[in-house]
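hey so u asked for the seq, here:
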Amino acid sequence: MLLAGCGASESLAPSPDAAVDVATADAAVDVTRSDVPGRADAPFDAERDAPADVAVDAPLDASTDVARDAAPADVVAVPMGPVLYADGPLHSPITSDLAAHLRSIAARGLGAAQVFSKIGDSITVSTSFLACFAGANVDLGGREALRPTLDLYRAGNAGGTDPFRRTSLAATVGWSASAALAGTPSPLARELSAVHPSAAVVMFGTNDIQSRAIFTYGANLLDIADQLLAAGAIPIFSSVPPRDDDAAADLWVLRYDAVARAVAQSRGVPFVDLHRALLPLPAHGLGPDHIHPTTYLVAAGYRACDLGPAGLQFGYNTRNLLTLEALHRLAEVTLRGHAAPDADAPRLAGAGTVADPFLVPSLPFADSRDTSRGGSRVFARYPCDAAADESGPEFVYRITVTRPTALRAMVITRGTTDVDLQLLDRTATAASCSVRNDRVITTTLQPGTWHLTVDTYVDAAGTHSGEYVLVLVDDG
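ran it, structure tokens below
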């Protein structure tokens, strides 16, 4: 449990090395899709070698244009699919099929079993994050089941130190996700080469929000995931803390968190919801700058690895517990051969056709598909934009709401993939299309049943099919 009463000796203290790093210098506007012939007004898409179709009984195969020469076709193969990462739990599910998928990555032997890497910005760079697990001031708060994993990584060699204390080449103050991928070799590539981790804890978004370039953010997280997986490192993605420094920025946090969750789900890898865990804490577990987490402070000094009731009133302590738990859940199934911790999880129903749409059970919602490997060809034109040729494959989703719902639908792609969003009414006919867009629809759904198509654009250059990640959130 992360909720408990405060102790008398605690202090609502920021991390000892907290620094404001909400960067504006690297803020970027999402570029337009001018690389697609005939679509100079369309937003950027970025996938060429798309993951395989994620139909209900088909595996997800995600070699990408970033790592296509390095990644075997089964790098992120999920034996059955797809499990939905529902909002609410602090840890995404690991079911038996996902456990088998994670074991298949670990079995490739490219990563060192006792090493993980840290990928992120200042909230990851801080010495309050994980480093204390290598020291003497660790209180697991009675969670002795976590000790084998703690000891496992304490004994790891990550470039001459243990992974808890390692200064990562892929984590720097002020970074957005694009920074980890920039240059040749990139910081991410250099970190992977330096320590060959079997896992990586990844958190970006706090700085990315400044640009509002959420589609670039999503594409970058996909690239990070695929490069890690190609190197045999299983990413553990995280949501970000609230942005209590800026109400406008804070409105974007849940949108960015939904994208991070969607990327993790699309690759069948762990996700931890730090944002949800921080919300009940005093001041959301954030320090005076309202951005960086706090660290438990007692008379003897900072105690970021005190996971007792008093310590867990603080942001870094809470993140440390969630991260150790996530590493433990992963190690249990990949290194120790234990059974999956979750008997089952919500799964996507439907076949994605007009007759049998994929059913959206709740918001936020995410799904990943590949229109080059599946989909129907029922719709070719929509009267809401009759000029657009949408005769490529499409998938259909059904949404039923019982109250007015402020829907934000986003579709993230990479490379030359060009799929568009169309909102239809309960009849699921082209004539009922009320709004369409290349990458985002924002509208208020009235109570009733609606349909959303993700349809492939066609022009003189051909059918722009490929992988997409669909993200739906309630902006209300």
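The chain has nine helices and 18 strands. The two ends are 29 Å apart (CA to CA).
lmk if thats what u needed
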